[in-house]
Design brief:
about 450 residues, mainly beta, 4-stranded antiparallel sheet, about 5% helix, disordered C terminus, PQQ_rpt_dom, Quinoprotein_ADH-like_sf, PQQ_b-propeller_rpt, Outer membrane biogenesis protein BamB
């Protein structure tokens, strides 16, 4: 038997059911985990290995003039060599303006590329002299999910700033003096975050030389690891090798491992050379570094504390870091020659000239492709084929590139400059699927 419900009661029942259903949707939205975009929170990415997250695909070819595969292109004030940091909804980039004598953190809208904020962190503190291939904004910031940590060489010191994504400065702390005497080449090491500690390297020929751990909340010094009095530029990196979480730093003719929690030296081996710019890379057993000055080479040592030199060769990557992919390394040397090296024994698998000019940017792995850039603005895409060098594409992108590229959510971000001298203009460029169709 069916009960007949008056129309008014039917309407009331429908309203109640609709309200109940809406409430369920609201509760589900509140308590369901939020969908987050990919991010690139620090120098060399989430894992510190300069690998794009799996599944990313970006074009092999693009053109600034025609706009092919250019999602957006934003003019950047000043100059810098730092890589972009990509958060959920924004991109952050450091820059220095030599005319205004400022050092700033820039904020760009992630979707449109529009410059939406600039926080001036320092005024009138630019070093009088730096290397012509360096900039006053070379370290890449680090993002912990809530704040950005930004290092600058200013007023003869290294200063770390904690800044909100909205541009509010929570604190600024002088890490140490930084007054190079023999070689006034400037500064370039990026900070790294491990748990509640922000780690900053400051290596020069002076009393403040050291590796520093600062409290992420307060900026107070938690620990200091002494370093040899020696000018070097390598960024520290934290990784798990041999089952142990370790902080790695190379330079002063050593490769060193520290406990990132307290800065205590775990092991040290007398390999590498005096000045190192690149960052240590690793696999599950060994660590690798290339440099430098005055000696040149690439070194592989055990990462388990046994202090064994596994192999070395004479390939030199001074400013740029190595890239490990599988059981191989790509070493893009100072003269623009790419070397595919067997990571197990250091033997050359293949080598090929990729650029006629010099290289500063570090190579980037995206799926089965490696993106490399030169100081004269060339970008060459090669396959991860370890049997031969397979060049997939060549793209002239402006007149110079010093910053290392990053890839997030199927977009490749490059920081080229167009023009020279007074006409030089830097850009941040997002490369991805264009209106003309899928990446080619």
């Amino acid at each position: 038997m069916h009960m007949l419900v008056p129309p008014s009661m039917q309407t009331l029942s429908m309203r109640i059911a609709s309200s109940y259903f809406s409430a369920l949707i609201l509760i589900a939205c509140v308590f369901a985990p939020s969908v987050r975009s990919e991010t690139w929170p620090t120098w060399r990415g989430q894992a510190g290995d300069n690998h794009a997250a799996s599944g990313n695909q970006v074009p092999e070819n693009w053109d600034l003039t025609s706009g092919k595969n250019i999602v957006w292109k934003t003019a950047i004030p000043g100059r810098g060599h730092s890589s972009p940091v990509v958060t959920d909804d924004a991109i952050f980039l450091t820059t220095a303006d030599n005319e205004k004598k400022t050092q700033s953190l820039l904020k760009l809208d992630r979707e449109s590329g529009k410059l939406i904020g600039e926080t001036v962190l320092h005024r009138n503190g630019l070093p009088e002299r730096i290397h012509p291939s360096n900039s006053h904004a070379s370290p890449t910031p680090a993002f912990d999910g809530q704040h950005l940590f930004v290092c600058f060489h200013t007023n003869d010191s290294i200063v770390l700033s904690k800044v909100t994504p909205e541009g509010q400065i929570d604190w600024q702390k002088k890490v140490c003096d930084f007054k190079p005497d023999q070689f006034q080449f400037g500064y370039g090491a990026s900070p790294v975050i491990e748990d509640n500690v922000v780690i900053v390297a400051a290596e020069y020929d002076g009393a403040g030389c050291g590796l520093y751990g600062l409290d992420r909340e307060t900026g107070k010094q938690v620990w200091k690891a002494p370093r040899p009095i020696n000018l070097s530029f390598s960024s520290p990196i934290v990784a798990t090798v041999g089952g142990t979480r370790q902080l790695f730093l190379a330079g002063a003719s050593t490769i060193n491992s520290y406990d990132p929690a307290d800065g205590k030296l775990l092991w040290s081996i007398d390999e590498s050379t005096d000045a190192i710019c690149g960052t240590v890379v690793w696999d599950d057993r060994n660590v690798f570094i290339s440099g430098g000055y005055p000696g040149k080479g690439t070194w592989c040592v055990s990462g388990d504390g046994t202090k064994v030199r596994v192999w070395d060769n004479r390939v030199k990557c001074y400013e740029q870091s190595l890239l490990r992919f599988g059981d191989h390394l790509l070493a893009l040397d100072d003269n623009g020659i790419g070397h595919c090296i067997d990571a197990n024994d250091g033997e050359s698998v293949w080598k090929k000239r990729l650029f006629d000019g010099k290289v500063s940017a570090s190579p980037l792995l995206v799926a089965d492709r490696i993106y490399t850039a030169s100081e004269d603005g060339g970008v060459v895409v090669i396959s991860t084929n370890t049997e031969k060098c397979e060049i997939l594409a060549e793209n002239q992108t402006g007149n110079s590139i010093f910053a290392s590229p990053v890839v997030v959510d199927n977009r490749l971000y490059l920081r080229p400059a167009v023009g020279f001298g007074q006409d030089r203009q830097e850009y941040l460029v997002a490369i991805g699927r264009s209106a003309a169709g899928p990446p080619k």
